[in-house]
Every structure is written in C-alpha cells, then in structure tokens.
Amino acid sequence: MAIVDLITSGIGLLASEKDITTTWVEGVMRGSGNLEDGITVTAVSTERIGEGVGILSILQRVIPTYSGATKAPKTFVVKYPTDDPVQRGTADALVFYIRELTFYRDCAPSAPFKTAKCYGQAIESENTNFTIAMEDISHYRPLNQLDGVSLSDAKIMLEKLADFHAMWWNSPKLPAMQSIFPPILNPTYEMVLPMLWAQGWPNVEKYAGHLIPDSVRSIGGIWGDKVPWMLGTLMEPTTLIHGDYRADNMMFDGDEPVVIDYQICGTGSGIYDVGYFISQSITTDVRRGHDRELVDFYLDRLETHGITIDRDEMWRQYLVVIVFCVNYGVTTFGGFAEQNERGQQLLQEMLLRAMYCVADNDALKVIS
User: Fold this and answer.
1) List of residues 6+ apart from 1 with CB closer than 8 A
2) Are 360 and 231 in contact (CB under 8 A)?
3) What is the DSSP letter of 151?
4) Cβ(286)–Cβ(182) below 8 Å
5) Which of the residues in the chain have pLDDT under 70?
6) 141-366 has the same fold as 4-135
7) DSSP 135
8) What pLDDT is recorded for position 90?
9) Which CATH number fits domain 141-366: 3.30.300, 1.20.120, 3.90.1200, 2.60.40?
10) What fold does the segment set 4-135 form as a domain?
11) Strand extents, DSSP E, 221-336
12) What is the pLDDT at residue 349?
C-alpha cells in the first residue's frame, strides 16, 4: 500500500465536508493501491467524529459506495484543520500539522505500538492547510479522556511509551529531524506559549477559578516567566516524544496498544510524555498516591533496553513537567465558550487534573 501525495497527484486537499466527493475518494483509494481497476466510487456519505476530542483538527468518517466487490475499505477517516479560529491559530503558531504527516510517513512503520494506516496526505506549507486520509480504527477499544485510564491500562501505555522512547534515546538521527520535530526549548515556544497562557488565564479564572486548589492558585502569575527555564530543564536526555500522549489518542486492538495523533511530536526528555499522560489522562482519585509508582514503572522498562537512568533527576523533571502541562488546560480555555458540552467538560477536567497533580506533589516548589 502506498501513501498518495494529495497535492502532486492532483487529488487535492480538503477545506470542508463538501470537498469529500466521489472523485476525491476514488482518487485517494486508487492512488494508495486500495481500489482495483474497473471499480469506481458511486456515492459518498460522511459523519463528523471526535467532536470535543480532536481539538486541533476536524475528523470525519467517510463511507464510500463502490460499483462492485472490492478490497477497498468500507470506511476511512479524514483529518484537516480545525475551523475554530483560536485552536487553528495555536496550531499554526506552533507549526503542529506537518509533524503528523511526517510521522505517519517516516516513523510509524517502526513504532512499537500500532497506529492507523495512512492512505494519503499532503500539506500546502509548514503550518497551514493539510489533509490526511487514514484507516478507520473505531472498532478498537478506545480509552476515554473524561472517564480516565485505569492503573492497569496506564502501565501498559507507559510500557509501550518507554519502548518508543528507547528507540530514539540520544539517537544521532535526532538533530537532522528537528526541523520538523522541534526541540522542546525553541524560540517559537518561548515566545508563543506565554502569550497563549496570558490569553487563556482570564477565562480560567472566569469559568473555573473557584475550582482551583488554593495551594496552586499562584501559578497564574508565575508560569509565563518560567517557560524558558522549564523547557530548558526538559531537553535532556533527548528522545522523540509524542507530545500529546493522552487517553483520547489511545485504544486497544485486543491486548495491543494503539496510539494516534502525532501533531505535537518533538524532541526532548521522554519524561515529558510521562508527566503529561499521568497528570491529565488519569482521574485525580485514581492517580493520587501512585505518581512515583507509575514513573518508576516507566523507568524500569527503559532500563530493560540498557538505558542508564538518574532516577532523582527524572523525578525532578516529572515535577517540572506536571507544572508545565497545566499549560494545555489554560491555553485551550481561550475558546472555552465556543466548545460543545463534551469539549467544555474535557477542557475543565484536563485543567483540574493537572492542577491537582501539581498540588498533590507540591510541584510548584520546583519553579519557585
């Protein structure tokens, strides 16, 4: 199976649902080697999926009707930029979209976890219009961000994460890849993240201020100034990080983990993914009291790959990460009022889980 370039092949990118025509679908399926000669696409229907989940992109399931028996998939999924101006601005400013396309093309085949097959993709420039057409894996058992991840499932996902990080641990290939997968410490993040924080924090105070633990309430006034230091602390040891390793991007094919959504891939300390996952994908009641246990489980797995770990430094970095990752809840609050009910629940839950993780571990002390 080939991955067809949607621009050079003339198939074209999607800007909205109306662009998903029979001609477009037939071009993707035939170009990727999934549609036999003599078989055509006679009709197409679509349905929006992932609302309140795919925050930075629109996700739609495509259901083609074929003219005859075929090996082509009965359904597939397309992904293209969000129509939310706040989230689109975030994705463009931080150059997210091209990372996912590159990951599916160059990195997914060797990853230790399953991911969706990619049928076609292209991007017009490094941070604007893109489209990905990929396998529909909705029949797998999904994890759910709102419900949270059990400790047993969390350990499986941390085990696979350690395997993924080990593949790229201090790899000599990473410097050449950083034009697409930038280091955590980079000028764009240093400039943009404090601005996004400043835009989101007033909405946090407006819609969720009464829910924030008193012990971490001061984070609003100090986080932005600490961004360069936090990012610098999370630069080494260097590996390829997923960047958005959370429950809504995970599922199981039987007992086998499946991971999707690579728009925020970058390079830096692997503990970034660990802290992000633990602080936002496990409910506070389930996580509380298990932070060190889960971090140690990840580190134990890394050591099976022959990697030497400074555990005290990894724990210190974990504390930095969970403080830094409050950013995800705060910056997305800029568009809180425009989200649907699940989207609002997700944003609030992610924010509060992160806040309570910081409070439970007294993590603000590392940036004070």
Assistant:
1) 32, 33, 34, 117, 119
2) no
3) H
4) no
5) 1, 51-55, 126-127
6) no
7) E
8) 78
9) 3.90.1200
10) Phosphorylase Kinase; domain 1 (3.30.200)
11) 238-241, 250-253, 256-259, 266-269
12) 86
Residue among 130, 114, 143 at smallest CA distance from 53: 143
Given this model, what pLDDT does residue 51 score?
61
Q: Given phi > 0 = left and psi -120 to 50 = alpha, else beta, which region is 289?
A: left
The DSSP secondary-structure symbol of 363 reads G
Torsion, CA 40, CA 41, CA 43, CA 49, rounded to 10: 170
Q: What is the pLDDT of residue 84?
A: 84
Which residue type sits at 20? I
Per-domain residue ranges for the chain?
Answer: 4-135, 141-366
Both tokens of residue 281? 């994908």
pTM over 0.90, yes/no: no
Residue labelled with tokens 């003219």: 67
pLDDT digits (tens, 9 = 90+) for 98-136: 899 999 999 999 999 999 999 999 999 766 799 999 999
The reported pLDDT for the residue numbered 126 is: 63
pLDDT for 170 equals 95
Find all residues with CB under 8 Å of 308, minimum gap 6, and list them.
Answer: none
